[in-house]
User: What shape does this take?
Amino acid sequence: MNIRGVIFDKDGTLFDFQSTWGIWTAQVLARIAGSDEALLQQLAEALGYDTQTRRVQPGSVIVAATPMDIAAVVKDCIPALSQTQICGWLNEEAKTAPQVLVTDLHRLTAELRRINLGLCVMTNDAETPARAHLASVQASGLFDFVIGSDSGFGAKPQAAPLLALADKMEIPAAACVMVGDSTHDLRAGRAAGMRAVAVLTGLAEADELAPLADAVLPDVSHLPAWISAQNS
Assistant: This one.
């Protein structure tokens, strides 16, 4: 079956992961820990973050978890705070996280529209920050639908949010491809009966992603050529 729809992950796929979330994590740690250096280091270790290089480490909960998952890790370090309160802080900080695109999204989506594809975004980030991130790079109107882990459809690696987007596009799941930088993305695509394409603009290496992927691409700019080849 030809590919008719594409579902993109956001962070590490459309946006460079470290340029966004390395900076965001530093902001979050500063907000929560304040001047308590010992607490800051405790939080950094729990979250898998290197405060010296300001980089998220492979295997960090930040890579593919939902804001509530990250809030649970923070709460273990600060039991006096509620998980809901922490999650609110995370989402507020996320709205203003700096966004660095992997490629020109206007050009990429124009190429994909020329071959008549539906285009969506499914992120384990919350929906409001996700929409803010797209708006910050003038990309709000480039996608048919955008949902997050709090949009009522679940989170990756569950299949449900991807199936919901296929339904919204009125495209069979088997005619969709999930594009992402993590094993969560690829497992969700497989569970939904979609093709799965990995990109190397997140933290995962090719040998980790390849067993779950139909293809491993350097970045999303290579996607139109790959889809055209599949549909030929």
Notes: Residues 121 and 169 are 12 Å apart (CA to CA). The chain has two domains: 5-16+100-231, 18-95. The chain has a mean pLDDT of 94. Residues 17-33 form the longest helix (17 residues).
